[in-house]
């Protein structure tokens, strides 16, 4: 592709030479050499900020939230996707939303971040007619940090498809570089993708649904995950990206249980043995096994139906050993504090489980974080 000025037609008068003493070619050669530089090293200079969040425990500086809007008024009406039913299950809801209540809980969440010195970026509203994006509150699913900048992912099902454009527009207006998108038939959501540190990231197949065994869908998952890995490896070839077959966002999702560098609150026996071996060998991982009285018991969402004890939710890590969690779990809070973790609680029950389908971690898109501490 030709560059500016490269193929200018010859003219009788060389205005460049006449006015500057140098022809255009001579100007290029003397003053305008090609500059070899690294995109990541120029982030702050060219893009205004250090748009990096390739860690889940570095101090959180900028978080992406979505304010509940008119989409929740559509619940109870036929869905705009097949089979166009109007029941709560069709909307993946357990309750008929009270928009005022949800907005109040969103404001609680936004205030909690701001009180901790975190800048809050609000995703653009749903402009569909009728609006339907009732899961857009889970901003961590739609875009995810690469080594620097954000990758726009590609959602799995009808209720989430369409969240990508307003997320992209929000990031672009904020000045955040979008360094890639999942293309073709690829699919990827943020829940199964987790940075364990700046050099190690896991990407796992989402938990099985009724249609997952279809070969095309399996390949679509894998293709989306490979695309994510390729973008990351292009930015930093040293990053170890592990594509994990298996059972997705809950069983073994260590990035949902972090409290400090290479430290998570979970029983290592719940992890895939190969993942566990990798974490220990590569990162000397520290597992803090929580006592039974603060654990939750659940059954895995696959044909094995394994009963697993999951530790208390560590929510969003605000900085090492400091977490933001939903209120209402005093035993867990007391235990966290007993092991030296500072806990910030926020009332937001309409946004998170058990009333809603996601967690406070899902509802927080990490856009800028400080680097992880490396002194320990």
Sum this structure up briefly.
The protein is 23% helix and 19% strand.
What is the overall pLDDT average?
A: 91
Would you state the CATH class? Answer: Alpha Beta
Strand order of the largest sheet: 2-1-17
Distance between the termini: 49 Å
Radius of gyration, taken over Cα atoms and rounded to an integer in Å? 24 Å
Topology as a string of helices (H) and strands (E): HHHEHEEEHEEEHEEEHEEEEEHEE
Q: Name the structural class.
A: alpha/beta
How many DSSP E strands?
Answer: 17
Query: What is the number of independent domains?
Result: 1
Helix content: 10-25%
The largest pleated sheet is described as: 3 strands, mixed
Q: Mind telling me the CATH superfamily name?
A: L-arginine/glycine Amidinotransferase, Chain A
CATH topology: L-arginine/glycine Amidinotransferase, Chain A
In DSSP terms, counting alpha (H) and pi (I) runs of 4 or more, how many helices? 8
Going by CATH, the architecture would be 5-stranded Propeller
* Shape verdict: globular
What share of residues are in beta strands? 15-25%
- Unreliable stretches, pLDDT < 50, 5 or more residues? none
